[in-house]
Amino acid sequence: MEAGSTKQITVVEHLLLHQKKSPAATGKFTQLLYDLILAAKLITRSVNKAGLLDVLGGTGEVNVQGENVQKLDEYANQVLIHRLERSGALCLMASEENPEPISIPSHLPKGDYILVFDPLDGSSNIDVNINVGTIFSIMRRKSASTSEVNPNELLQPGYQQVAAGYFLYGPSTMMVYSTGQGVHGFTLDPSVGEFLLSHPNMTIPNSGAIYSVNEGNHAYWDAPTRRIVESFKAHDNPQKKPYSTRYVGSLVADFHRTLQYGGVFMYPLDHKNPEAPRGKLRLLCEASPLAFLAEQAGGAASSGTGRILEIVPEKLHQRVPLYIGAKADVAFAEAQLRQG
Asked: 19, 107, 215, 236 - which has most CB atoms within 10 Å?
């Protein structure tokens, strides 16, 4: 590796180099980031040995989302909670796997940051060796730091995030994050045990040639959603030619591809329950942090009716539809939905 290469820059070094520009870059935030990275290293170690350790398959339990809990889900959740509650930077946490917010034990030091995370997105794919990831969102509490923290303080719209990102566990382990100063990607070098800058200033092309959606839900979509997908298959779209379709079924992996190649990822509202149509993805731990990254990379993220980052959460595990990726493709989907 040549001297001066950006690949020699670690995540913390990168943050310190840009801390004057970033409202998130405080000493406690740096410690929080360090502990997030340590947790990710522990998780990637277990993911890489998933076929050798007793971590494949389900636990037999069902989480608050009504989903079967995988053994690695439980492990990743426990690692993140254990590491991050000791960072001294947090006053509150929330996980996709826990029904209620997670308080910091009284005997541990606290800070003014709030962390929301999906410990292992795409974990149902782990048995077949498909990419999985950890998504995180970091906010600051609104009230004075001397007062008792209110669990509702985590119900903040996405534009108030001070940082967001994800770890992608695949052929290589990556960390992609933003503190509001662009999006940067780091790759774990196992030989030195550090995430090194590999993808500085990541941007989403204004339009792409890939659409990503679970077409198995076609029968449950409304007419405008079906029209969007048919348009991407034909010529009535921003590219004026058929798009390719790619769908991994792991949100982190699908978004990571969209971030690099453009196009659009969609998880529309569906009518599997005719009396309560809804989106599937969680606003606080999935849609909002990825929307923050998308906008920082020059893209867009919408619920189909408005900007994801402007939605004010009403509850911890609120779900939303999601259209995310290139600006032109997201705008096209929104226009089709407005037509009804």
From this structure: 19
**What is the rounded CA–CA span in Å between residue 221 and residue 17?**
47
Q: Do 166 and 281 fall within a single domain?
A: no
Q: Tokens in use for 181?
A: 């100063």
Closest CA to 293 of 207, 166, 117: 166
Give the Cβ contact number of residue 78 at 10 Å. 14
What type of residue is 94? Answer: A
Kindly report, residue by residue over 161-173, the tens digit of the pLDDT: 999 999 999 889 9
pLDDT digits (tens, 9 = 90+) for 110-157: 999 999 999 999 877 767 777 899 999 999 998 766 678 899 999 999
Report the number of distinct structural domains present in the chain: 2
pLDDT at 91 over 80: yes
- What single letter denotes the amino acid at residue 71? K
Which are the contacts of 71, defined by CB distance < 8 A and separation ≥ 6?
54, 55, 56, 57, 58, 59
156, 178, 199: which is the final residue of a domain? 199
- pLDDT tens, residue by residue, 199-230: 999 999 988 899 999 999 999 999 999 999 99
Helix (H, G, I), strand (E, B) or coil at 212: strand
What's the CA gap between 116 and 134, in Å, rounded? 11
- Residues 87 and 83: their CA atoms lie apart, in Å, by 7
For the whole model, what pTM was predicted?
0.91
Range of the domain at 283: 210-339
Closest CA to 287 of 271, 309, 269, 263: 309
Instruction: Write down which residue in 144, 168, 199 finishes a domain.
Output: 199
In this structure, what CATH number is given to the domain that contains residue 155? 3.30.540.10
Residue 237 in 3-state DSSP? coil
46 contacts: CB under 8 Å, gap ≥ 6: 53, 55, 72, 75, 76
Give the torsion through C-alpha atoms of 213, 207, 331, 288, to 10 deg. Answer: 60
Give the residue, 112 or 46, on which the prediction is more confident: 112
